[in-house]
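Shipment paperwork, digital attachment
Item: protein structure file
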Amino acid sequence: MNVGLVIAGSLCLVLAGGHTFVGRLVLDRLPRDLHPTRFGDGALTRGAVVFTWHALSVMLTTTGAVLIALARGEHAHDRGEVVFLVGAAYAAATVLLAWRSRRRPSDLLRTPVWVLQIVITVLCWLNT
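Attachment content:
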């Protein structure tokens, strides 16, 4: 077992937890009436900020899990585990985006990032 990778992965998980905690404090205080952008009204802008914040938390968590998984040092099937976890991260980000858009599903059509996320997820899982 590679102790350095376990520590690095654990630190990523701590960072993800801190990012999520601080995000709840900051994001709850965001005004509900943000200025509109060229992509949509203030509600869409606020939703995009919230999504981006939490998507980073998901990616930090996944990075930590990947590093801890690789710490085992088994080379034969590590690629499959890493690829599966990367796919899982993108799947989780897609679910988060869908959840954030549940009140206004039309927002998904304005920024179709989720399409790329689904493609990445499927490709990763097919090549595990």
